[in-house]
Amino acid sequence: MSDSPHTTSTSHKAINFAEKLGKFDSLWSPKVIAEMNDYQFKIVKLEGEFVWHQHEDTDETFIVLEGSLNIAFRDGNVTINQGEMYVVPKGVEHKPIAEKLVKAIIIEPRGVVNTGDSDKGDLTAENDVWI
Amino acid sequence: MSDSPHTTSTSHKAINFAEKLGKFDSLWSPKVIAEMNDYQFKIVKLEGEFVWHQHEDTDETFIVLEGSLNIAFRDGNVTINQGEMYVVPKGVEHKPIAEKLVKAIIIEPRGVVNTGDSDKGDLTAENDVWI
Predict the structure, then answer these.
(1) What domains lie within chain A, and their CATH numbers?
(2) What's the mean per-residue pLDDT of chain B?
(3) Which residues from chain A sit within 8 angstroms of residue B41, using beta carbons?
(4) Interchain pair B107, A109: CB under 8 A
(5) C-alpha to C-alpha distance for B37 and A109, rounded to whole angstroms
(6) DSSP states of B31-76 as a string?
(7) Chosen from A8, A39, A86 to mutate, greatest number of chain B CBs within 10 A
(8) Per-residue pLDDT tens for B2-31?
(9) Nearest CA in chain A to B69
(10) Which is it for the CA torsion B31, B36, B67, B122, positive or negative?
């Protein structure tokens, strides 16, 4: 194959979730796989309980690829199963809980920190890590 | 169950893609299932060839839930299979082609018209239709 400018076909490549998920094991550590305008798509593996936090300036979308994710709110909770999504509204305190391993996609604006406004340093993942 | 303000648990509900897909049959007719800030998640059924078009102001994300979607570009093409996604950059002419039925999620800002800048009136779907 040639990189010549005369090549008539460019290789565009889809992003495969399973392939990306196979590249890391760390929990609660979102990895960026794509950007759309100023939003990022991140894949993540979750197991156990996260911390209560909120994102003051933005909604946050979860799409579950495998497993069953529970998100606790101060007034209830939601269970997101494989093939389902949920949008956590901005400013709403929430606490993700994964009894067993969950593989999910998170969609939110570039720059959002996983622990939001909380000060739980240990769980604050490095931001903007691509995989 | 009561709607009393004293209820201690609110019913939050995940959005199930299969359930939403079961509610319509029309092709090339995106239905909104959720919003995140000023972005919309739309599910769509595609079969056949769409028109060449572009979205001057925004990227557009495709996540394939079932089937295999081809998107032609002027300089090549991409195949997006089940479990894969692709972000079409803004301003890039593209033509979705589904040899067989494809079920997919499209993510883009509220207000984006499916045919973009093209004037193919027959294929221009009503916008902002929720399901």
Answers:
(1) 43-123 (2.60.120.10)
(2) 91
(3) 61, 85
(4) no
(5) 10
(6) EEEEEETTEEEEEEEEEEE---B--TT--EEEEEEESEEEEEETTE
(7) A39
(8) 444 444 455 689 999 999 999 999 999 999
(9) A14
(10) positive
Strand B76-81 with A10-11, pairing: parallel
CB contact under 8 A, B83 and A16: yes
- In this complex, is the C-beta atom of A15 within 8 Å of any C-beta atom belonging to chain B? yes
- Range of weakest confidence among A77-81, A107-111, A113-117: A113-117
> B77: nearest CA in chain A?
A12
Residue of chain B whose Cα is closest to the Cα of A7: B75
Q: What is the pLDDT of residue B64?
A: 98
Position A9 confidence tier, pLDDT thresholds 50, 70, 90: low
Q: Is there a contact between B14 and A85 if contact means CB atoms under 8 Å apart? A: yes
Question: What pTM does this model have?
Answer: 0.91
Q: Could you read off the pLDDT of B37-68 as tens digits, one per residue?
A: 999 999 999 999 999 999 999 999 999 999 99
What ipTM is given for this predicted complex?
0.91
